[in-house]
Design goal:
The chain is mainly alpha-helical. It contains five helices and no strands.
Length: 122
């Protein structure tokens, strides 16, 4: 049979997509493998920024009324970030979160929406 339209050569595109997906897969593998350390670094940075902002407000001479509350919140935020830092550094906290999310039932809104979509598609 004679073909008037030649078949396109997609070999280069296939190799490109394979390399792209392999790189994407490797990135997420690395991210989730070292996720505790990444979250540790994020919370250290957040704690330092909160600490510096609270310190700035503390040593500023224009502290009045509500600024005092902001200063106390900043200190509490620094403490929470530091606790979360070391909690993520130990694997017990992530296991604890996993156990909580595994045992908590799904919200009724999600279940009813899912059932609605199934009935609508039938």
């Amino acid at each position: 049979m004679i073909s008037l339209i030649p078949e396109p050569d997609l070999g280069g595109v296939g190799r490109f997509l394979t390399d792209l997906f392999n790189g994407f897969s490797y990135f997420w593998y690395t991210f989730f493998r070292y996720g505790n350390y990444i979250l540790f670094a994020i919370f250290v940075i957040m704690g330092l920024v909160l600490f510096l902002n609270a310190r700035e407000k503390e040593y500023d001479e224009r502290i009045h009324g509500k600024e005092e509350l902001v200063k106390k919140r900043g200190r509490a935020g620094v403490l929470i970030c530091l606790l979360l830092d070391f909690a993520f550094l130990s694997n017990r906290f992530t296991r604890f979160l996993y156990d909580i999310y595994e045992n908590v039932p799904e919200p009724q809104l999600i279940i009813s929406h899912h059932n609605f979509c199934i009935k609508r598609n039938d």
